[in-house]
Amino acid sequence: MNRLIVGFVAVLFSCFAVAGDESAREKMIQNGIKVCQAKGFATVGERDKCVAEFTAKANERYPARGSDAYAKKHYGGMSKAQAEATLIELQKEWEGAKKGGYFSARRTGVVTKKAVAAEGWWIQVNVLGVRESQDDPWFMECKGFQTANIVRRCPLGKGGAE
């Protein structure tokens, strides 16, 4: 129970930090666009290259939700118990997230199902050692049923017990 509470508190604090990171990243990109427009490049391609450099710097400093950089920063170094607690919280967030599309993914503060699922799969692959598949990442690998080609899935919250 304590592990679930610790995981919940960690996700809660990271959510507050994420809101600030997203707005800071968006502001950095907007400032880059203004700087690049003010430089008066001869071609659109040169201006786009300039904007891409600012965008890359912003994404490096403030990684976007669902990216490998974000997942590594927020979920790297977790224990298996912390990973399971975090997966439970991410599943709750995933259930309430918008399906999203091309433009909603670019709005500040909008978290899509795809981004949350990507974070869940990062935890599954990099912390729990499960191979990624086409299904959702909201499971624990069952204890004692590891084979070379099949992942037996048990529900979250039971530590891998059926």
From TrEMBL:
Region forming the signal peptide: 1-19
Keywords, alphabetical: Signal
Annotated protein name in UniProt: Uncharacterized protein
